[in-house]
Amino acid sequence: MKTRDMNRDWIATARTLSEALPYLQRYEGATVVIKLGGHAMGTPEGMESFARDVVLMQQVGVNPVIVHGGGPQINDMLARLDIKSEFVRGKRVTDQATVEVVEMVLSGHVNKSIVQAINAQGGRAIGLSGKDANLMVCEATDPALGFVGTPISFNPEFLRSLHAADFIPVIAPIGAGLNGETFNVNGDTAAGSIAASLTADRLLLLTDVSGVKSAKGDVVTELTPDQIRQMTAEGIIAGGMIPKTETALTAIEGGVRAVVILDGRAPNACLLELYTDHGAGSLIRPAK
């Protein structure tokens, strides 16, 4: 009985691999940018699963680029250092003391933990920030917000050279200013901008929600930019989902073929999206 059960498991595995073949061929050589949100990092087991998926993606021909956040980790460190935050129109003011903490947390602990997780699964990850090789040069978004940056230029050839050498870039959203400043960049904004600079095939926004929801609360599996704008105008898309859908629209306008908003805490979320009929989350792309 046990042998029969094992045989059934092997048959199911073989069938799954066979069904995935068209998708493996579809994404061979494709660039996929993955935004890993701070909340989506979840447990050590979840990080291990994510890292294994990224390594598998590279093994079957995908060029992955990881851009990560780290808001919860930044908040924890600011609290430990007793650095209080001020907000202007709902956005955190990033003064000199705060941006130093942001860079320390994102480029240090968070970035290297992701690199280490990928390397532990047999990958060759390399940790970067937007300051390396002028990967992401920024200007101040709003003087009232201090060192919060908006990307204005990129170095995508640097990332392509890493892919050519079989490295997986893991990027902290810290940008370099034209006058030597260090800028904190919203993680979604950084991921969307980097994806556009690479003309990526996919941008996967891994977050802690299952996708864009309808007025009834159901996840909408496929959307066009016009539908996103209409749902936002009607108030169906609201709160924290607005910046994510705005990132998706900007990325598509910049040349990214499609953007997916999905729950990064779900097991094998990236693989389900890329290599199955069902997919995962909400796919946003121009109307056919």
Could you characterize what this model shows?
The protein is an alpha/beta fold. It contains nine helices and 14 strands. The strands form three sheets. Strands 5-8-2-1-11-13-14-12 form an eight-stranded mixed beta sheet, sandwiched between helices. It has a four-stranded mixed beta sheet with strand order 7-6-9-10. Helix 2 crosses helix 4, helix 3 crosses helix 4 and helix 6 packs parallel to helix 8. The longest helix is centred in the first third of the chain and has 26 residues. About 40% of the residues are buried. The mean pLDDT is about 90.
SSE inventory with pairings:
Blueprint: H1 2-27, E1 31-36, H2 44-59, E2 63-68, H3 71-80, E3 87-88, E4 91-92, H4 96-120, E5 125-129, E6 136-140, E7 149-154, H5 156-164, E8 168-172, E9 174-177, E10 182-184, H6 187-197, E11 202-207, E12 222-223, H7 225-233, H8 241-253, E13 258-263, H9 269-275, E14 282-284
Strand content: 15-25%
The helix-and-strand class reads: alpha/beta
Quaternary organisation: single chain
Order of helices and strands: HEHEHEEHEEEHEEEHEEHHEHE
Low-confidence stretches: none
Largest sheet entry? 8 strands, mixed
Q: Return the average pLDDT rounded to an integer.
A: 89
Helix fraction?
A: 40-55%
**Per the principal axes of the C-alpha atoms, what is the gross shape?**
globular
Distance between the termini: 50 Å
Strand order of the largest sheet: 5-8-2-1-11-13-14-12
Report the C-alpha radius of gyration, rounded. 19 Å
The count of β-strands is: 14
Please, how many helices? 9
